[in-house]
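Methods: holo model generation. Sequences were used as deposited, without trimming of termini or removal of tags, and paired with ligand SMILES retrieved from the corresponding compound records. Each pair was processed once, and we did not select among multiple samples. The sequence and fe (ii) ion SMILES for this entry were:
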Amino acid sequence: MILCIGNVLTPDELKTIGSALNATEFVDGQATAGWHAKLVKQNLQAKADALPLQEAQSIVQTALHRNALFQMAVRPKAMRPLLFNRYDTGMFYGSHIDNAIMGDRNQVRSDVSMTLFLSSPSTYAGGELVIEDTQGSHAFKLDAGSMIVYPSSTLHRVEPVTQGIRLAVVTWIQSFIRDASDRELLFDLDTARQAIFQQQGKTQTFDLLTKVHANLIRKWAEL
Ligand SMILES: O=C(O)CCC(=O)C(=O)O
Ligand SMILES: [Fe+2]
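and the model returned the structure below.
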């Protein structure tokens, strides 16, 4: 399941992050790509230990934590550190698959990839995130503060930026629910169960759906 989530960051938060990124040193993005992805990666990323970045990192961390849709769709168990990336005019990231296991000491299996867009689409041309699945290629260019989550098992790319600068923050998440179709099933069930609660309250039907939901998590969750 590919899911777009709007308004993850407030305009104020976006402004603070923008100022932090202005004060941050960006380096060649090649450092964090697999040997095959390196061949097609041409972007920049913020130095991980850059001081001005700390506030920006904690703003995004908090925003992910409070976002009910993100939590429901991804069911995060562990997450790679947030990576702020930048594509200046002419930069791109060609078709690639993300590494399955990331990190040296705290290893994370990438089940879900996410991009949180930080630049308004009106400020740059190109730079679409294109995700390929069995139904074809899907291009995304979201509002600043909106995010997309998609299975890390997909080939994807960032189209060349032909004008302006594209800023984003990306990360990879290991989910309690490893299988993407199981995650989607739980997401749908949870959505339906909550709609029933809104309409009818805590009925027997709601209780039954909640039981199925909880027991499927028991069946599938990896702790
Ligand atoms: O910038 C993006 O939207 C995605 C970048 C990406 O695919 C990656 O860093 O692996
Ligand atoms: Fe990627």
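Residues 9 and 62 are 10 Å apart (CA to CA).
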